[in-house]
Design goal:
Blueprint (H helix, E strand, L loop, with lengths): L23 H6 L18 H4 L42 E4 H7 L4 H5 L5 E5 L7 E5 L8 E4 L2 E2 L19 E8 L3 H4 L6 E7 L6 E9 L3 E12 L4 E12 L8 E14 L2 E16 L10 E18 L2 E17 L9 E18 L10 E18 L4 E2 L6 E3 L5 E3 L1 E18 L2 E12 L7 E10 L20 E13 L3 H5 L5 E2 L7 E13 L3 E20 L6 E20 H4 L6 E15 L7 E2 L6 E14 L2 E12 L2 E6 L2 E6 L3 E12 L16 E8 L18 E11 L1
Parallel strand pairs: 4-7, 24-27
Antiparallel strand pairs: 1-6, 2-3, 4-5, 6-7, 8-9, 8-36, 9-10, 10-11, 11-12, 12-13, 13-14, 14-15, 15-16, 16-20, 17-20, 18-19, 20-21, 21-22, 22-23, 23-25, 25-26, 26-27, 26-29, 27-28, 28-30, 30-31, 31-34, 32-33, 34-35, 35-36
Amino acid sequence: MFFHHQKTVNRVVTWRHFDGKSYSAFNSLKREIRIGVLAVSTLLAAHNDSLATRPDSLQIAKAAASSADLSLGEATVTGSQLPVSLDKTWSKIVVISRQDIDNARCQTINDILKLCPNVDVRQRGTMGVQTDISLGGGTFDQITFLLNGININNPQTGHLSADFPVAIADIERIEILDGASARIFGSQALNGIINIVTGIEPTNQVGIHTEGGSYGTFGGGGNFQFSIFNSQYRNRLSLDYLRSDGAVDNSGFSRTRLFGQGRYGAEGLRLNWQAGYNGQRYGANTFYSALYPNQWEENSRYMAALKGEVTAGGVCILPTLSFIRNYDHFQLIRGSDTGENFHRNDVLSAAITANFQWSPDDKNGSGNVKCFTAFGSELRHEGILSTNLGQPLSEEQRVRIEHHHDLNYDHRDGRTNMSLFLEQGMRCGPWSLNVGIMANRNSAVDDQFRLYPGVDINFRPRILNSHRSNPDLDNGQSPTVNFYVSWNKSMRMPTFTDLYYKSPTLQGNLGLKPEQCNTFKLGAQLLTHDAQFSIDGIYRRGNDMIDWVMYTPDDIYHSAAFRLSNWEFIAQAKLWLFRLMPRQKVLRCASVSYSYNLQRRHDDIQVYQSSYALDYLRHKMLASVEHTIAPRLSATWYFRWQQREGTHLEYTSGVAVQRPNRAYSLLDLKLRWNNPPQSEHKSASRHHTGQWSYYASLENLFSSHYYDVGTVPQPGFTFLLGAVCNFGL
């Protein structure tokens, strides 16, 4: 599909309602939303419709109550407790739209995130199984995962936090905020957040999909959604199944996902609910140690959440309640009780926020300064029952749970986290300022509140007369420039695994303190009608940063803390070739990005081997070209090169040899066939009724030999073929 600028007149629909979760404004609209990009999207195959939105057309006004379907290219997300329009935002957020996901033809969330330069995805298995995700040179424990704004982090271990209960077909967009975010998203957002936002179409329909490919991979699923009472009440239910024999030894898996969500909207009241299940069993090749390659694991997650929104007198109050239960069964040697563990952890969270907008200058006639205020609190309890993690229980205290053959848990621990926040935003001409603070208290530390402040400053100068040289830049398509700088402080509590885990290869540390980090960001971006460029620099300085290390070659891994600093540099460029060369009808867009991390320890402790913090991604380069092959067939080529710092251990007859991590490069090809052609349905929703689409994912075309983690070899050339269809009711 080629981009044609069309001047349309849309009914102005905006909002006053927000609750600190980026998707909330969309919920208040109760409409079909096409997501615009708040910052430069880092997904290499980003679709032009999500990047070429008008940056100055969204007003802050009272949300309309009409249930008519609406397409808003100007709609944006926020990285704050406060709502702002696209051209007035305080912090940079990467938005991966539904169209981006469709173009990339990825089957899992981690495959999508591999295409972002600042995201480090380390996989032992395939298709999202045994995957660790981190941001900016940090570890997988230092990132907060949100599902529709609900924190779904696993307090047992970050290894299991990315077990999302949603299928790719459920996702409307993915939001990524790189940097300390405690005052916005809670005490665990040390290095940044990734928010998975799902969507519900305003139509009644059924969708099905099926796929199959290399190594016995097969999957399928479907979804059903309906809308009644003039779209005020919507529901969606989806089921997804995937299995594979595994591309390497002991990496076969099976996974089932079930997800349901609903929305209700009326005058002054909004309700959103969701519930999900994710269950998987897999061979955990060298999960905790390369000395034991035949490990095995089974996980299951149950979650439910309810969000409300009550508006009265210009003030919006948003209560939230969520509950998550996780089960984990691990065997160090598959089929035996050696190093076997059973765990169950529960997370109960309740929060309430309030917000309002006020403009103190209006009475004086200036009307140029806009001010916003938000405040609220959250109470979160995390508890665990285990055969390994927590304080030992007496015979009388042992808890019998009817799960895993009526197992007796003989260890227990729990902690309660309370946080209070206050945030103030201000806009004046091209300048935007946001100042906030979170007061946090955790029962596992002491009874004191600790403060985590932050400030974001944004400057967007208006480029005058820039459209004169190019008439196509009229009607809201003028170039935009954005400069931003920020400082934020954040913290993270150690996981229960960090504190307690004990096995033949690992030893936890009860003396660990909460991680503390200061993050400084400086960046600039330029977006024109046919190109976008951005450059970012981030400096992190952390205290008590947790890692698992060996001090000598004969040692086991210990959880320990260090003072670490990290410099992160990211540069990106993207060109829409069909706009630069309108006569050619084949090439669509090309992009390239590069990220660099440099980390330093600030102590003299000698470490022989690091598993995570010192084993960071130093270089990552991405490039892509998207083009059409035929009217209905499009292709995207992806090239990825990356080099990891540090070393790994290779075992021969039980003897460990230290080897440096090696750089590798991969070339992938993604094909997509639409029937009927996509260009015939530019105005339609993302799932046009009765439309079939087919795709092929061809990965590692040159069958490169590479490793993501230690000595676990990743597959050579693999393929996956699939089909998707949606039927109207």
